[in-house]
Amino acid sequence: MKGSIRQRGSTWTWQHLTGTVGGKRQYATGTQRTKKLAQTALTASLDKFNKGTLTAPSKLTVEQWLTKWLTTIDVKPATLHAYGDIVRCRLTPHLGQIRLTELRGSDIKAVYKALGTNGRKDGGPLSPGSVEATHRCLHRALQQAVEDGVLQVNPADIPSRKRAPAVTAVLNPWTPDELNRFKASVAGDRLYPLWATAIATGCRRGELAGLRWDDVDLDGGRITVINTRTSTNYKVYEGSTKTGIGRPVGIDAETVDVLRQWHADQAQERMLAGEARVTNDYVFTEPDGNVTHPESITNRWDAAVKRSGLRRQRFHDARHAHASVLAHNGVDMVTISKRLGHSTPTLTMNLYVHANEESDRRAVAAFSEAMGQ
């Protein structure tokens, strides 16, 4: 038995006879992007058939596979939650009832086009970045099907697909003057030590929520970011930093004094509350000793900003403000990247492109002065 290969449009289809059922011939078949791949798939299928290990085509639907896949992947809770939303709201309504083995690249491209037209919950167009996130989710799920032997090729590998263009975020964080005005307005807040540390280090919300006193070196003027506390649907998850390794972040003398006083205040609370107070090693806690919830940090920040009378800034914008202050004062992007915990300096440069351009202008001026121009 040899089987056959034929071209259909831009793809190649292979098939071979596997027997008869009720007088009707039954075939094993598949589609590949190139003739060479189709020949390889045909040879593999014939080999399984001759060995008696060829299985019947799976009746598993895309929805069934995606649902199963979500229960097996090892990702952080926030990522799993995002994938679940993508599967439920974007992929299942369009592709859910298609047999997984019959899913084609043309089906997927049609979905992306539809999402870009009216993919939002309010009927508006989904942003190119959100469509790209949908593709990454689907591609990852289908690649797992390939690795598990359910599919022979990933139909989301679409050579002609146009990727979403990279978008540089437009950042307008607080200036040093605004940062100081904010700090002055919230000096009496219980979470002032957290606000001050966020501004002084550029740490993420989850990194500060998970900071422990064992990771704070006040004498050395340094904290080590290694633990995180994030939340999804208000449920808190303990984890590690995004890069998976701890990173040291230096802190200025003023912030050291703030944290030293806060440490003393906590000790006083423990002494007054006695056994009624929850005991732990976290830096930012409530009067009863419970760790401050990540969502509470966001809510109380928003309230503090509103009371300050300053223009609105998210808690995460304190991170951008920290980086911008450093960049505008000549600190190199590699150092800033390390403080922020970015995976590469390229990410930092893309985020703070305007500050990077200013650094470039200073470099031009320095070269001109050195050359006596």
How do the strands and helices of this protein lay out in sequence?
Elements: E1 4-8, E2 11-21, E3 24-32, H1 35-51, H2 62-70, H3 77-95, H4 105-118, H5 128-147, H6 176-185, H7 192-201, H8 205-209, E4 216-217, E5 222-225, E6 227-232, E7 235-240, E8 247-250, H9 253-273, H10 294-308, H11 315-328, H12 333-340, H13 345-351, H14 353-370
Antiparallel strand pairs: 1-2, 2-3, 4-5, 5-8, 6-7
Helix pairs in contact: 2-3, 2-5, 3-4, 3-5, 7-9, 7-11, 12-13
Structure overview:
The structure is a single chain. By secondary structure, this protein is α+β, with helices and mostly antiparallel strands. The protein folds into three domains: 4-51; 62-147, Orthogonal Bundle (DNA polymerase, domain 1); 176-363, hpI Integrase, Chain A (Orthogonal Bundle). It has 14 helices and eight strands. The chain has helices spanning 35-51, 62-70, 77-95, 105-118, 128-147, 176-185, 192-201, 205-209, 253-273, 294-308, 315-328, 333-340, 345-351, 353-370; strands spanning 4-8, 11-21, 24-32, 216-217, 222-225, 227-232, 235-240, 247-250. The protein has a three-stranded antiparallel sheet, with helices on one face. Strands 4-5-8 form a three-stranded antiparallel sheet, with no helix packed on it. It has a two-stranded antiparallel sheet with strand order 6-7. Helix 3 (77-95) crosses helix 5 and helix 7 packs antiparallel against helix 9 (253-273).
